[in-house]
Write a sequence for this structure.
């Protein structure tokens, strides 16, 4: 399972801002925005319920107050 | 454009190991491996060449000595 965690749009992202600034200084001016998040690759045994995987992602890998979660579940 | 950066398989990943340990203590024993990486979402204006996007990803967002890059380019 792959889980991507990104800061909610209304939360400021200093890491992404720093990357954007560096890209501009290096001449990559076509990049107009950068958001930096976390990427988790989980090896999961057997066939856990979608519910369990969602719970892992939303309560353990991300902080739902400030972060959004994108789940990429393996094909059933 | 979305860029996922993950440590190469032969590089140890203490963050991922810590998450794996926490999941085990919380009873999620079906998860047998966790790798933690970085997830970048870039807003790009116009239609830059695939070459430029690859260069940004591989030389500026990742450290190619220890990290692998996965590019998700927008549809042409």
């Amino acid at each position: 399972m792959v889980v991507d965690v990104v800061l909610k749009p209304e939360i400021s992202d200093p890491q992404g801002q720093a990357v954007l600034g560096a890209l501009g200084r290096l001449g990559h001016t076509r990049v107009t925005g950068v958001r930096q998040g976390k990427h988790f690759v989980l090896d999961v045994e057997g066939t856990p319920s979608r519910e369990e995987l969602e719970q892992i992602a939303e309560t353990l890998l991300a902080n739902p107050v400030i972060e959004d979660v994108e789940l990429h579940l393996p094909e059933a």
